[in-house]
Amino acid sequence: MIRRFLCFLWLVLLLPLAACATAPKVHEYRLDNGLKVVVKEDHRAPVAVSQVWYKVGSSYEHDGITGISHMLEHMMFKGTEKHGPGEFSRIIAELGGRENAFTGTDYTAYFETLEKSRLPVAFELEADRMRHLKLDEKEFAKEKQVVLEERRMRTDDQPRAKTYEHFMAVAFTNGPYRNPVIGWPADIEALTVADLRQWYRQWYAPNNATLVVVGDVDPERILTWAKKWFGPLEPSEIPPLKPRTEVEQRGERRLTVKVPAKLPYLLMGYKVPVLASLPEDRQWEAYALTVLAGVLDGGESARLATHLVRGRQIAAAAGAGYDLYDRLPTLFLFNGTPAQGHDLDELEQALRQEVKRLQEEPVSAGELERVKTQVTAEAVYERDSMFYQAMQIGLLETNGLGWRRLDEYVDRIQQITAAQVQEVARKYLTADHLTVARLQPLPIKAGQRPPAPAGLGGNHVR
Amino acid sequence: MSVKACFALFVGLVLAFDVWAGPKIQSWRTENGVKVYYVHTPELPLVDVQVVFAAGSAWDGDRFGLAHLTSALLDTGAGRWDADAIAQRLENVGAQLSTGVSRDSAWLDLRSLTAADKLDVALETAAEILAHPRFARADFERERKRLLLALKQREESPGQLAAMRFYQMIYGDHPYAHPSEGEIDTVKAMRRQDLEDFHRRYYVARNALVVVVGAVSRTEADRIARRLTDALPQGEPAAPIPPVPAPQHARTERKPFPSAQTHIYTGMPVIRRGDPDYYALYVGNHILGGGGFTSRIVKEVREKRGLSYSAYSYFVPLKEKGPFVAGLQTRNDAAESALEVLRRTIDRYLAEGPTETELEAAKKNITGGFVLRYDSNAKLADYVAMIGFYGLPLDYLDRFPREVARVDRTAVVEAFRRHLDPDRFQTVLVGGGAVSRGDGEKQ
What we know:
The complex is a heterodimer of chains A (462) and B (443).
Chain A: H1 8-14, E1 26-30, E2 36-41, E3 47-54, H2 68-75, H3 87-94, E4 98-103, E5 108-115, H4 119-131, H5 137-156, H6 159-171, H7 185-190, H8 193-203, E6 209-215, H9 219-230, E7 253-260, E8 265-272, H10 284-297, H11 303-311, E9 315-321, E10 330-338, H12 344-360, H13 365-381, H14 386-398, H15 404-415, H16 418-428, E11 434-442
Parallel strand pairs in A: 2-6, 7-11
Antiparallel strand pairs in A: 1-2, 3-5, 3-6, 4-5, 8-10, 8-11, 9-10
Helix pairs in contact in A: 2-8, 4-9, 10-16, 12-16
Chain B: H1 14-19, E1 26-29, E2 35-40, E3 46-53, H2 66-73, E4 77-78, E5 81-82, H3 83-92, E6 96-101, E7 106-113, H4 116-131, H5 137-154, H6 158-171, H7 184-188, H8 192-202, E8 208-214, H9 218-229, E9 251-256, E10 261-271, H10 278-290, H11 296-303, E11 311-315, E12 322-331, H12 335-352, H13 356-368, H14 377-389, H15 396-406, H16 409-419, E13 426-431
Helix pairs in contact in B: 2-8, 4-9, 10-13, 10-16, 11-12, 13-15
């Protein structure tokens, strides 16, 4: 949930991340107070991206306070003892910079893009709000309304987003990915400044953060600036996270979501491991699942587009996705819309047949080669965006994997064999670990008003 | 190219950036008459190529969606290759190809590695797609059905319904009025032959330009441009788009919809690309509703009152007058008061103009951060395509911050008064709060 116009949630969820084989050198430091600093040089333009990543997101939350990480993200722009509400944005704007922030299941991150010599200002402001946030009662009351509007816009009035929210809540029983990043409406409404203060104190500390800088910079100078501004901040005692390991799923789960909509929609998710959850000798599985996602949905030549959208024309759209860098075991996702004259049953059957085929026969040498070529090319293309490079570093550091994993990515993908792809398909894409959600459209009647809010916990405020 | 519209906010140190001059755009014509725009960016072994035609939805005629569908069919079959073969050829070499349209233009974007064996395959495929698309019956039927479903899905969204209605209200019978994707009835009535005719008329050398940005030499860029367009017939440039008549009087429409939020748009057609007033309007709007959290609309609607998640205003300069749009979305019971705040904020700005402090802050932001708008190869290619398509000066990327720095308070006040007239604003509300007030204001 980015504070403003973008949504990284789906990006992170559905796009396999790729890194660069011949990436320029990365410099890593750690300050005495525990702040990790990672710098990557990119001298194409006289600008730099600075991102501060905190190890906290919706998967760190518990029932009753869901959405608190995202809410705190909003409040981080509402002033410190030194700088009043809105000052952060005003100062960065005056310097010609861009600033914003985003919250995901496993992280909260704040960023500035600036002319390179202006970076100290970003450091000063970020350091200030890392430990000296004001959390004003009045500002909070208004911002809560803004977040509720954000929720209405992103989820409540979006049939597919709503389906996804319900789907995750059914797919996970006790694992924290069951809660939406933005939070459940009743939880958002019931949050207090005291809740936020506690959350802030607990997680916003130098020893729970990574500062990532990518751009036309000198790493030693970045270190000097980082020491100057972040160095004096006190670390916190970060409590170890409770495991909350998802209980094993014992059989297929199905749900129907009925909302006013024009088209039906299907979501399917198989429980799968991630890099961080696999022992060293099984980590190839995460890369094999990534290749599998590429075979199914790596462009117009991939199987879903070729077989279901064009060939049999059962789907108007169909996709598959997996993110090996998630912090906790995740879902291998399928989604789709039936083509005209076809229904959700046929689409689901067709997707299951694709899974079955992956289990029964190895992918062809040509397909495998194509996926690998795409991964290699994307590793070059991704270097075109400083912001994305910084995001990858921040994400891997925050999820406990370390940025060095990026350097391995292309090689590890290249090593995957057809037999390994088949093996993970057999091992993980099994019906007993599957959840299926169907969006069943209710009619949208012209001129119809929405139903009245249904008591407490509804989506409507006062 | 609305895609390439900018919400950008930026700025800073004019001095620091003067040292770093903008990228040098070179331009020439191929023997075939195609204009080429080229920037050398040697840092990464990739190249972004765009072929742009004056073939956007403004040339749909009464077949709304024709430009869009033509563009969507291009890579589903060309020459001796079907869609599968095309996809495999491109993806075997790691190339990425996409096509699209806006109201003004249609484009093909190609991103490739510069290694000769890979780039050659990508170019050969793209050239065939542009010159010899098959428009096979089966592909046509399939893509039309998919488009129809997308158009149906559009009706799930109060925001999209409001945006569509807004354009119809401000443009009336003008070709900018209908959405580029078309409408269900017109797409249903579309024939394969319409696409072939459209392609034959508009995908021609004299209606095209090629943008090459990447790690290739000028000679190589020229070869790329020729390779992509040599098979195109000479043809004729597209006919001009008719001028846009201004709406005669203000109107407000309220369309109930079963959603938790009501989406609001207000504005009118205003400005052509290349109009010298654009700099003053751009700077002025940055203060009004284009500068993100520092802009007046965001402060009034979101920061002071918590009424909306996103609230904004922007200008979209097009070949002919593109719109000024102000908008927001809010909970149903706040719709009328939010609209009132939006209107008051605009009215007050028109009456008083910006303060000197606001103006200085906006200018610093825009000029100082201008380089951030093209700090990647992909963004630079988009900018160069915009400059080429609208015939802006080749030094536009240097000129823009200079012109912005020159804008003063009087220029902003006068440009806003000259171009914006709230008595002609068209306003639409779609959502659960869009209740007719029974005072005859509806329609």
